[in-house]
Amino acid sequence: MFESINTNGSALNAAKTWMEISSDNIANANSSAAPGEAPYARKSVVLQEISPFEAKLNGVNGVKVENIVSDTKNVKTVYDPTHPNSDQDGYVRYANIDLTAEMTNIMVGQKMYAANTSALQANEKMLDKELEIGKI
């Protein structure tokens, strides 16, 4: 029973990180880079199941944030010679953030969080019933 609580807890932490990273991406969607500097790189979360060995070793099972990956390849370049961050040719480099995809990621994170909160509440009810049965 307590293992399922650990599983839900790890999933709640993963969902929180998932939403935080997408929020960071949205916050930096319109940020530009000064000439010679790299623009904000879109980040994404890589989740991984906690291995049975690691679960036995640490006493926690479920899912973990394996890595946070930056996408440095996709850069949006816009011609705007009046922009303070334009280069000598008049181009400004922006992060290539798809707001629709990021909002979808936040909704997925919210659903992950809500599902695991519901499962955690169900575990709590089962533990209460076990204690109630034990009193009889």
Automatic annotation (TrEMBL):
Presence of keyword Nucleus: no
Assembly with partners or alone: The basal body constitutes a major portion of the flagellar organelle and consists of four rings (L,P,S, and M) mounted on a central rod. The rod consists of about 26 subunits of FlgG in the distal portion, and FlgB, FlgC and FlgF are thought to build up the proximal portion of the rod with about 6 subunits each.
Source organism of the structure: Listeria grayi DSM 20601
Signal sequence, renumbered to the chain: none
Family per record: Belongs to the flagella basal body rod proteins family.
Keyword terms, alphabetized: Bacterial flagellum, Cell projection, Cilium, Flagellum
Annotated ranges, domain Flagellar basal-body/hook protein C-terminal: 88-129
Subcellular location: Bacterial flagellum basal body
Pfam entry (one): Flg_bbr_C
InterPro entries associated with the record: Flagellar_basal_body_rod_CS (IPR019776), Flg_bb/hook_C_dom (IPR010930), FlgC (IPR006299)
GO cellular component: bacterial-type flagellum basal body, rod
Name recorded for this polypeptide: Flagellar basal-body rod protein FlgC
Main location: other
GO biological processes: bacterial-type flagellum-dependent swarming motility
